[in-house]
Design brief:
FAD/NAD(P)-binding domain; alpha/beta; single chain
Length: 488
């Protein structure tokens, strides 16, 4: 039996591997010249840049795909656990090293901010409790299935509902637990992992620090694109075929079944099963006709986007680590601006430089910087004007905090804006994570992993359950595959 996967993002690649293991003859059609979607890369003037996600957590979900195929992941894919998760910088020159080890991190926070280390460790323990009792429910299972809610995991979690902080916001929980404004700001920023607002997102999302400080952050040997290239190679070893620069323009269907696809060239391909990895909004608006639209899903609030600068930098900035956060002075104003569709005059800047740890990423004596500023999704803003303003403030801010002239250090540059993200990846309005999680019901409103209208149509990727980011996209493929019939 034949299966077609629409899109070679990381969710689509994982789905192709899992579908092949179910006995299907799998073909992936991708409109871009290569695989990965947001998890792709490019080279410019001797520098290599990962285009999108720059933080790697939950590596077991990648390893699991190799093990599913009877392979040892260490034969093909290598990574290391980072001792330092992130370095944090404030304009008043306060600096904090966030160690991966929770006790070291708690003690560092105590030393820098003169707080009780036990306070920080207690917040991390509360985060871990949320993950222990809710993670498998919300991240690894289909939420529309009765069997999920009758499972042992749910029965075990019910007595602990009060500890899930469902009726508080992330900010309220962090303020209650951490007290110190800069620690609250640090923990609030975890909302940006899924493009949400900590002043509106539910308190259960304070589960996110567990991924960094209890499980850890990791760096693939060849940078983030190693995840994509390793899994594409694995998929090919399972017989999966990839067709790039092959844009799907129509999903064919009859009755309660999808029957194949039509490419923009007019060429058609039949299928017994189809997996959609394209953004669900794009899918319903552009790829399938004469169907009932899931209006509640398509009208949900979008997540944030980003303006990203890719800078080739001359020099060795020793104060920087792999991941670095330069905070704004007024975090609440920053998120209020994003909510209204603008970027505040003072904003947080994220800097990643894999060349500090990966050989061959940049010419000798230089570094490759991924510089990201959270931005609203595209509402028709003058992005060229914004780029000029954001670039100027970013350079001024970083130069001041590091006491170095950054402007003269930039050797090569490229930008990525919300409209470009939409064009390049199909993400509706450039929203990086599909819909936001600014409601305690957001998880239930995300598009499910199987179609309600077609029995052989499935959905994976960051715009569907369980959400955006590499680990969750990989989990979407696992959930979808568990719902698929085996090939006969």
């Amino acid at each position: 039996m034949r299966a077609i996967v629409i899109g070679a993002g990381i969710g689509g690649i994982a789905a192709a591997i899992r579908t092949a293991r179910l006995g299907y003859d799998v073909t992936v059609f991708e409109s871009a010249p290569g695989p990965g979607g947001k998890l792709s890369s490019f080279e410019q003037d001797g520098f290599r840049f990962d285009r999108g996600p720059s933080l790697f957590t939950m590596p077991q979900y990648v390893d699991e795909l190799f093990e599913l195929c009877g392979e040892n992941p260490r034969d093909y894919f290598h990574y290391r656990r980072e001792e330092v998760v992130c370095r944090y910088f404030w304009d008043d020159m306060d600096r904090l090293i966030a160690y991966a080890d929770p006790d070291l991190f708690s003690q560092e926070a105590a030393n820098v901010f003169n707080v009780d280390a036990h306070l920080v460790r207690k917040a991390l323990d509360a985060s871990e409790t949320k993950y222990t009792y809710s993670g498998k429910i919300f991240l690894e299972k289909p939420l529309h299935k009765l069997s999920t809610w009758l499972s042992k995991d749910v029965l075990t979690a019910i007595p602990r509902l009060a500890q899930m902080d469902l009726d508080d916001t992330m900010h309220a929980v962090n303020q209650r637990q951490l007290k110190h404004p800069k620690l609250v700001q640090l923990f609030d920023r975890f909302a940006t992992y899924n493009g949400s607002n900590p002043y509106r997102a539910p308190g259960i999302l304070t589960v996110i620090p567990t991924f960094e400080h209890l499980i850890g952050t990791f760096l693939p040997k060849g940078g983030m694109f190693d995840i994509t290239s390793s899994l594409v190679a694995l998929a090919k070893r399972q017989g999966v075929k990839f067709h790039f620069e092959s844009k799907v323009q129509n999903v064919l269907h009859t009755g309660t079944r999808v029957t194949g696809i039509e490419l923009n060239s007019g060429e058609t391909h039949k299928a017994d099963l189809i997996v959609n990895n394209a953004d669900v909004h794009f899918f319903y608006q552009n790829l399938i006709k004469d169907v009932k639209l899931p209006k509640r899903t398509l009208t949900q609030e979008r997540s944030t986007s980003a303006i990203i600068f890719y800078w080739g930098i001359r020099g060795d900035f020793k104060e920087l680590g792999l991941h670095n956060i330069f905070f704004s002075n007024d975090y609440k104003a920053e998120f209020e601006a994003l909510q209204s569709g603008t970027i505040a005059n003072d904003f947080t800047v994220y800097v990643n430089a894999t060349s500090k740890y990966v050989q061959g990423e940049a010419p000798e004596g230089t570094e490759n910087w991924f510089v990201m500023v959270n931005a609203p999704y595209d509402r028709g803003q003058d992005w060229q004007k914004e780029i000029s303003r954001i670039r100027e403030h970013t350079i001024t801010k970083l130069s001041k905090i590091m006491s170095k002239d950054l402007r003269s250090a930039i050797q090569t540059e490229r930008t990525w804006t919300p409209p470009e993200i939409q064009v390049d990846t199909g993400s509706y309005l450039g929203a990086l994570y599909g819909t936001s999680s600014n409601s305690k019901f957001a998880a239930f409103f995300r598009h499910r992993n199987e179609s309600k209208q077609f029995e052989n149509l499935f959905f994976v990727g960051g715009s569907v359950h369980p959400g955006g980011g590499v680990p969750l996209a990989l989990l979407s493929a696992k959930i979808a595959a568990d719902l698929m019939p085996r090939s006969t």
